[in-house]
Design goal:
The chain is mainly alpha-helical and about 220 residues long. It is built from nine helices and two strands; from the N terminus they run ααββααααααα.
Length: about 220
Protein backbone atom coordinates (compact mmCIF):
# COMPACT_ATOMS: atom_id res chain seq x y z
CA UNK A 1 0.00 0.00 0.00
CA UNK A 2 2.86 2.37 0.86
CA UNK A 3 4.46 1.71 -2.55
CA UNK A 4 1.17 2.62 -4.21
CA UNK A 5 0.95 5.89 -2.24
CA UNK A 6 4.54 6.77 -3.16
CA UNK A 7 3.87 6.09 -6.86
CA UNK A 8 0.61 8.05 -6.70
CA UNK A 9 2.31 11.00 -4.99
CA UNK A 10 5.12 11.06 -7.56
CA UNK A 11 2.60 10.87 -10.41
CA UNK A 12 0.60 13.79 -8.94
CA UNK A 13 3.82 15.85 -8.68
CA UNK A 14 4.50 15.06 -12.34
CA UNK A 15 0.96 16.13 -13.26
CA UNK A 16 1.33 19.44 -11.39
CA UNK A 17 4.58 20.34 -13.16
CA UNK A 18 3.08 19.27 -16.48
CA UNK A 19 0.14 21.65 -15.99
CA UNK A 20 2.50 24.47 -14.92
CA UNK A 21 4.61 23.91 -18.05
CA UNK A 22 1.53 24.01 -20.31
CA UNK A 23 0.34 27.26 -18.71
CA UNK A 24 3.77 28.88 -19.20
CA UNK A 25 3.91 27.76 -22.85
CA UNK A 26 0.37 29.09 -23.47
CA UNK A 27 1.34 32.46 -22.01
CA UNK A 28 4.48 32.56 -24.17
CA UNK A 29 2.50 31.60 -27.28
CA UNK A 30 -0.03 34.42 -26.76
CA UNK A 31 2.87 36.84 -26.42
CA UNK A 32 4.79 36.00 -29.61
CA UNK A 33 2.48 33.68 -31.66
CA UNK A 34 5.35 31.31 -32.57
CA UNK A 35 3.86 28.14 -34.12
CA UNK A 36 6.43 25.89 -32.43
CA UNK A 37 4.70 26.49 -29.11
CA UNK A 38 1.52 24.87 -30.44
CA UNK A 39 3.51 21.68 -30.95
CA UNK A 40 4.95 21.94 -27.46
CA UNK A 41 1.46 22.41 -26.01
CA UNK A 42 0.30 19.27 -27.85
CA UNK A 43 3.38 17.42 -26.57
CA UNK A 44 2.83 18.23 -22.90
CA UNK A 45 -0.93 17.74 -23.23
CA UNK A 46 -0.21 14.21 -24.51
CA UNK A 47 2.08 13.63 -21.54
CA UNK A 48 -0.63 14.95 -19.23
CA UNK A 49 -3.21 12.51 -20.59
CA UNK A 50 -0.68 9.69 -20.44
CA UNK A 51 -0.04 10.48 -16.78
CA UNK A 52 -3.78 10.52 -16.04
CA UNK A 53 -4.15 7.10 -17.65
CA UNK A 54 -1.25 5.84 -15.53
CA UNK A 55 -2.93 7.06 -12.33
CA UNK A 56 -6.33 5.57 -13.21
CA UNK A 57 -4.85 2.33 -14.63
CA UNK A 58 -7.12 2.58 -17.67
CA UNK A 59 -6.08 0.26 -20.51
CA UNK A 60 -7.63 0.72 -23.96
CA UNK A 61 -6.48 -1.49 -26.85
CA UNK A 62 -7.49 -1.27 -30.50
CA UNK A 63 -6.86 -4.23 -32.76
CA UNK A 64 -3.86 -6.43 -32.00
CA UNK A 65 -1.54 -4.11 -30.02
CA UNK A 66 -2.55 -0.48 -30.57
CA UNK A 67 -3.13 0.75 -27.01
CA UNK A 68 -4.01 4.29 -26.04
CA UNK A 69 -0.65 4.59 -24.28
CA UNK A 70 1.10 3.61 -27.53
CA UNK A 71 -0.86 6.31 -29.39
CA UNK A 72 0.23 8.88 -26.79
CA UNK A 73 3.83 7.64 -27.10
CA UNK A 74 3.69 8.13 -30.89
CA UNK A 75 2.40 11.68 -30.40
CA UNK A 76 5.26 12.38 -27.98
CA UNK A 77 7.83 11.01 -30.44
CA UNK A 78 6.28 13.02 -33.28
CA UNK A 79 6.53 16.31 -31.40
CA UNK A 80 10.17 15.62 -30.53
CA UNK A 81 11.00 15.04 -34.21
CA UNK A 82 8.92 18.02 -35.38
CA UNK A 83 10.67 20.30 -32.88
CA UNK A 84 14.03 19.07 -34.22
CA UNK A 85 12.90 19.74 -37.82
CA UNK A 86 11.70 23.20 -36.76
CA UNK A 87 15.04 23.95 -35.14
CA UNK A 88 16.86 22.89 -38.34
CA UNK A 89 14.35 24.84 -40.47
CA UNK A 90 13.41 21.71 -42.48
CA UNK A 91 9.79 22.75 -43.07
CA UNK A 92 9.21 20.42 -46.02
CA UNK A 93 9.70 17.42 -43.69
CA UNK A 94 7.20 18.53 -41.03
CA UNK A 95 4.65 15.88 -42.08
CA UNK A 96 7.19 13.02 -42.07
CA UNK A 97 6.69 12.15 -38.36
CA UNK A 98 2.91 12.07 -38.80
CA UNK A 99 3.17 9.73 -41.79
CA UNK A 100 5.63 7.48 -39.91
CA UNK A 101 3.35 7.32 -36.86
CA UNK A 102 0.33 6.51 -39.01
CA UNK A 103 2.06 3.46 -40.48
CA UNK A 104 3.44 2.42 -37.10
CA UNK A 105 -0.02 2.75 -35.55
CA UNK A 106 -1.59 0.78 -38.37
CA UNK A 107 1.08 -1.89 -37.91
CA UNK A 108 0.27 -2.15 -34.19
CA UNK A 109 -3.42 -2.39 -35.04
CA UNK A 110 -2.85 -5.26 -37.47
CA UNK A 111 0.04 -7.13 -35.78
CA UNK A 112 1.29 -7.87 -32.27
CA UNK A 113 4.98 -7.28 -33.03
CA UNK A 114 6.55 -4.25 -31.37
CA UNK A 115 9.92 -4.32 -33.14
CA UNK A 116 9.22 -1.34 -35.44
CA UNK A 117 7.61 0.67 -32.64
CA UNK A 118 10.56 0.02 -30.30
CA UNK A 119 13.09 0.84 -33.04
CA UNK A 120 11.33 4.15 -33.73
CA UNK A 121 11.21 4.89 -29.99
CA UNK A 122 14.95 4.24 -29.57
CA UNK A 123 15.91 6.42 -32.55
CA UNK A 124 13.64 9.33 -31.60
CA UNK A 125 13.93 8.93 -27.84
CA UNK A 126 17.73 9.03 -27.67
CA UNK A 127 19.26 10.32 -30.89
CA UNK A 128 17.02 13.41 -31.18
CA UNK A 129 17.66 14.54 -27.55
CA UNK A 130 21.42 14.26 -28.03
CA UNK A 131 21.19 16.32 -31.24
CA UNK A 132 19.02 18.92 -29.48
CA UNK A 133 21.53 19.18 -26.63
CA UNK A 134 24.34 19.67 -29.13
CA UNK A 135 22.43 22.20 -31.23
CA UNK A 136 21.15 24.04 -28.17
CA UNK A 137 24.66 24.43 -26.82
CA UNK A 138 26.06 25.38 -30.22
CA UNK A 139 23.42 28.02 -30.94
CA UNK A 140 23.04 29.04 -27.26
CA UNK A 141 19.35 28.16 -27.45
CA UNK A 142 18.19 27.46 -23.90
CA UNK A 143 14.81 26.06 -24.96
CA UNK A 144 16.36 23.51 -27.35
CA UNK A 145 19.01 22.54 -24.79
CA UNK A 146 16.49 22.21 -21.95
CA UNK A 147 14.02 20.18 -23.98
CA UNK A 148 16.82 17.93 -25.24
CA UNK A 149 17.86 17.32 -21.63
CA UNK A 150 14.23 16.66 -20.69
CA UNK A 151 13.70 14.18 -23.56
CA UNK A 152 16.89 12.36 -22.57
CA UNK A 153 16.01 12.09 -18.87
CA UNK A 154 12.41 11.12 -19.62
CA UNK A 155 13.52 8.49 -22.14
CA UNK A 156 15.98 7.05 -19.63
CA UNK A 157 13.16 6.80 -17.10
CA UNK A 158 10.99 4.91 -19.58
CA UNK A 159 13.88 2.59 -20.43
CA UNK A 160 14.34 1.73 -16.73
CA UNK A 161 10.73 0.59 -16.33
CA UNK A 162 11.86 -3.02 -15.90
CA UNK A 163 11.34 -5.47 -12.98
CA UNK A 164 14.95 -5.33 -11.68
CA UNK A 165 14.78 -1.54 -11.18
CA UNK A 166 12.81 -0.15 -8.19
CA UNK A 167 9.54 1.38 -9.35
CA UNK A 168 10.25 4.79 -7.85
CA UNK A 169 13.48 5.28 -9.87
CA UNK A 170 11.76 5.83 -13.28
CA UNK A 171 9.14 8.00 -11.56
CA UNK A 172 11.80 10.26 -10.02
CA UNK A 173 13.56 10.56 -13.38
CA UNK A 174 10.26 11.59 -15.00
CA UNK A 175 9.79 14.28 -12.35
CA UNK A 176 13.37 15.53 -12.77
CA UNK A 177 12.74 15.64 -16.53
CA UNK A 178 9.50 17.63 -16.26
CA UNK A 179 11.16 20.09 -13.85
CA UNK A 180 13.94 20.59 -16.42
CA UNK A 181 11.30 21.26 -19.11
CA UNK A 182 9.59 23.81 -16.84
CA UNK A 183 12.92 25.57 -16.34
CA UNK A 184 13.50 25.51 -20.12
CA UNK A 185 10.21 27.25 -20.95
CA UNK A 186 10.88 29.75 -18.13
CA UNK A 187 14.10 30.64 -20.05
CA UNK A 188 16.24 29.52 -17.10
CA UNK A 189 18.97 28.11 -19.36
CA UNK A 190 18.94 31.23 -21.54
CA UNK A 191 19.36 33.49 -18.51
CA UNK A 192 21.86 31.51 -16.45
CA UNK A 193 23.60 28.94 -18.66
CA UNK A 194 23.88 30.70 -22.01
CA UNK A 195 23.97 34.20 -20.66
CA UNK A 196 26.30 36.29 -22.81
CA UNK A 197 28.57 37.78 -20.17
CA UNK A 198 30.81 39.50 -22.72
CA UNK A 199 27.82 41.24 -24.32
CA UNK A 200 26.61 42.39 -20.92
CA UNK A 201 30.04 43.77 -20.04
CA UNK A 202 30.21 45.55 -23.42
CA UNK A 203 26.83 47.21 -22.82
CA UNK A 204 27.82 48.19 -19.28
CA UNK A 205 31.11 49.67 -20.54
CA UNK A 206 29.28 51.69 -23.20
CA UNK A 207 26.80 52.91 -20.61
CA UNK A 208 29.59 53.95 -18.22
CA UNK A 209 31.42 55.71 -21.07
CA UNK A 210 28.31 57.73 -21.87
CA UNK A 211 27.94 58.78 -18.24
CA UNK A 212 31.61 59.76 -18.11
CA UNK A 213 31.32 61.74 -21.34
CA UNK A 214 28.37 63.71 -19.96
CA UNK A 215 30.41 64.73 -16.98
Amino acid sequence: MSDFLVSLTLEIIFLIFCVITIIIILRTYFENKESVYIGLIAFFAAMLFNSIFRVTNIVIIFGARLSFSNIIALVIFDIQLIFFLYLKKLKKFYYLPIVASFYLGFGLYENETLIFFISYAVVIGFIIPVILLREGRKTRNGLAFGLGLFFLIYGLGKMLEIPIVPEFVPEILRIVGIIVSTLAVLEFFDKYLFHDREEKERIQSAWISKLTAKK
